[in-house]
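seq as requested:
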Amino acid sequence: MARLQTYGDAHPEWKDKVILISVSIDDEMNTAKQHLKKRGWTKSVNTWVSGAWGSAAIKAYRVRGIPTCYVIGVDGKIAGAEHPGAMRLADVVNGALAQAKK
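struct tokens:
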């Protein structure tokens, strides 16, 4: 999450093309809100999914662990999905943007 906050400044060419979204599966929404507020994480769209591991979103995206990072292209297809520490996020996003130009 902390690294997610840095991508917009590091990649100004993404402006108006990329939306960074974080999804919390904390048991209660207030826990997620307090966590975000405490850290000042405002450079992403931050959401909460009720139902945690049993939620429809977690099942639909086949999330097996936290954190998991997804890059979804303009065509709505998943361009990349894995642990953010293993993913070269900027490369995957730039590849998806290049693909969208074709």
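The mean pLDDT is 90.
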